[in-house]
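for ur thesis appendix - MSHA biogenesis protein MshI. copy paste whatever u need, i formatted it the way the template wanted (i think)
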Amino acid sequence: MKIMDALKKLKLSRSVKTTTSIVILQGGVYIAKSDGFDELQEHYFTPINQPQSWKDVIVEACEKAGVTNSSASVILGSHLYQSFQIDNPNLPKEELTGALPFLVKDLITDRIADIVADGIETINGKLQVYISQVTTLHTLIDSLSPLSIQINNVTPDELLWAYSQPEDGSFMLLNHSQSADFKLLAFNNGHLHLNRSLRGITAPLTGDQANSFQMDSLALELQRSLDYLSSQLHGVSINNLFFRCDDEDDALLALELQNRLGVKVASLLVDEPRAFRSGEVLAWLALFNTPSINLFHETLKLKTDYFTLQNVMISWGVGLALSIAVVGYYQWQIYNLETTINANSLKESNYKQELATLNKKLESHKPSAAKLAAIKRLNDDIQSKKASLKVIDNFDEGMQVGYSGVMSSLTQLGKGNISLNKIYISGDKVNFAGYARTPDVIPRWVQSFDSELHLVGRTFDQLEIKTDDKGLVSFILNTKASEGNHE
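the 3d part is after this line
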């Protein structure tokens, strides 16, 4: 049971894909890793001595953190992007990214083809535009691809600070990291409304080298920004000022600013106690938040190159193997067909020999023409005799019915009243001729036919009655059998 549990844990740990955030600031590269859940697993910091040396440091930092085969969110410091505020062109999101380089071409010195841009609408209806160099993004791709790190998005650092105080709807943030300028940001309900670089202020603000004049200058700049926001954000009041400044005494800085400003001042503290420096906080926020700005456009994503030497060699090998398999298959089919043809040819030869033998035997059994003629004559004679017998049978039966039956019935009828002197019988027809005592005797005599078997069903074709001068009544009666009544 323990072995099965261990195997399940091992399988689970291998199936989890680490999510990574990489923050590139002027003072160093910060990397945070998560195991896929809403918790920070670990973070790393690699310092940068020269601002442009980040290209080499980022690979060193990823190798130091052991980041491979993962998806990553990249956060750019202010030295790697530019920010402008322009009139909102009111374009759909899918058209905005393509149109922004042309809308800001008069504000920058770079060529349109050398930049990427994205924007977000502000509370005053303007559009906050962020611009980065294409070479910067290509450098990221070239550095991270060999480590199997897939870039999900590239975001300016100032937008992530909006997620640092989710419980405060409106607040101002003073931020400073190593080798960078002091930066002042203002947020309202997650939207950035102010981003200023305080170039006249230098670190440190606290410590042995601090001076009150610089603190006064900082407080003056902060108050001016608060007054500006009060005039711009009608109905919105910013009463909280947070700061995240590296290498400063937080308690002393909070006290000095609180004494000079009319708002609540506090050090920025987040839920993750291990995230203390600005870069660490940004890396932690980037693990679990995705701003709407993404400078990593679809056109920059690596396209899979299928036409490589390895793929060509593999395709040739597969093609050659398939060709050999197809040729072998058809050769095998041809061999089977040839074998079948040879077997059938042998059978055909045997059948032909057998047919020749049977034909010879058939010649000896064929009847002669004389015998066939004699057989025909005998068959004709038999058919003729059968026809004669049928006629004789019909004649005998007809005669039996015509003579014996009819004559026997006539003798039973009409005694004393009817005298027949002529009887003609032909098949079903019977004709009578004779004398009657009186004319009314004839109908009664005919009516009495129904009582005799051989006369019943007879009908008249013609009845002729004559009376001569002497009163002798003669008649002629022609009859035939009714339909459906055959004896």
